[in-house]
Amino acid sequence: MRISIGLLIFISILLLFDLYVYLGLKSVFSEGSRSLRIYQIVYILSGIFIYYCFFKANEIAGNREAFRSTTINFYIGIVFTAFVAKFVFLSLMFLQDAGRVLYGCVDYFSGSKEAGSGFLPGRRRFLTLAAAGIAAIPFAGMLYGITKGKYRYTVNKVKLSFKDLPKAFEGFKIVQISDIHAGSLDSKEDVARGVQMINDESPDVILFTGDLVNSDKEEINPFIDIFEKLKARHGKFSVLGNHDYYGVPRSEREEGKNTVYWEDFFRKYEAMGFQLMNNESQRIEKDGEHINILGVENWGGGRWFPKLGDLDKTLENINDDEFCVLMSHDPSHWDEKVLPHNKHIHLTLSGHTHGFQFGVNLPGFKWSPAQYRYPRWMGLYKEAEQYLYVNRGFGFLAFPGRVGMWPEITVLELVSA
To answer: Tens digit of pLDDT for each residue in 187-200?
Structure first.
């Protein structure tokens, strides 16, 4: 197998990275200690697995079932978790070693260095142990995230008031879920528990805001019978997310092309009882009054995301004074298209960001790397008497876990101002 220069450089950097971490830990273990032996064994096994991932990639990709294997994803998550912990430890050790170099230089040029003594002072055992303890914090958090956190469903209840809400819809309950990413799910029991939590809220309507799969429509097959059990008095509605288009070539993603693929995909939504809305509107009637559920295809601000959402087409049968709830997968659509539009859309529901599956979500304080990529990345936003809610997602993608940004079931209750 041909190995690129870039790959060799990358592997060499990883080896140097691990060697530095190993030498740092070795300084606090006595030679031949059991702890040092355990680390050496773990280090060797990790190297073997990384080798497997790099050099068996083509073989894995050639077998779709193996490529989608959640077991492989789990072990990649373990390796990544160890990598993050090592990086934290390395960074702290580097700070200590920089201080040692500075101290040695000062002693050397000041002439206070004793004859025969080394240039660098030894590492402080306390500082090394403290660095290892600090590195253990993200390791433990991420390990929890890939074993338990990814299915730690959180119900978030939000009450929204509107001046022009039809009286018949006072207390109307919308449950939003987003970003199922069925190709990553590895526990039907946990998913079924999440579905039951949704049903326990007795929703009037369930709105799913896209990314049913990762990249292949067949990924949802093992879970169709579970999501079919979702119940709502006035129906279940969905839109497509950017990942739902990735099963077909870019040139064939437009509506009307690759008909066989899309027809089969749409039948899967029907089997789950969802009405898929591609730039469409649906009237929900109650006691002689109505609201409108709108659904646009994916429209993302990034140049690499599909931009098939057509808000004008979606609104063409909607009067200016009608109450509207819009499903739009990517929250960038709200700033780019929804807010500037001449028709008032009362509530927009989005997902897409996942809260980056990592962060801090406490009352009064929220942080995630997602905020540096998306201005609207989690929770409720309001401008010009219009609301946007960004759901953290039901599933997970790439990193097989969640840390701090637990999967979300959103319950939105509509009330009159």
So the answer is: 999 999 999 999 99
